[in-house]
Predict the structure.
Amino acid sequence: MVKQPSSPPPIEGSTDHVIGVFEGLRRRIEGFHMPDFLGIDITMSQAKIVLLLVSHGELHLSRLGSLMGVSLPTISGHVDRLVEQRLAGRRDDPADRRQVLVTPTPAAVELAERFHNLNVTQLRRLLDRMTAEERLDVARAFEHIARAVESQLGDEPVTPVTPDTQDRTRKG
């Protein structure tokens, strides 16, 4: 077997370097995150729909299909299963009976909170193993990412984390 020459490592601070670090982190997190995640008994498509409904509220079935990038029959089937699981409700749009509205149920909101809490719990476990200075580095990195997102989406500005604001956030 001929050994392929290895490519040089990416330049520190380059996009490829950061992606490599992120991928390494993602693989490690999957190791301890996956058992909790697998305990949630819905498909990935259903999870995406639940999260869309919870974040957007009531949506037309056609809009939901568009957001998911799937056909109307496909999204309708997914929604049917979510209705059976009591994670979504569907009804005719009173303004246009040809349209179907899909709403999240309280169980869907609870499931979305469970996803969120799972992520926060895992992040908290990691942050608790760091020094205050390391946590501040992580907060700054998150700020940089948030600013990149807001520059792409035009969201509201992110308040920078300083030791003073970090203390207020921790107390509040």
About this structure: The chain has two domains: 28-129, 131-172.
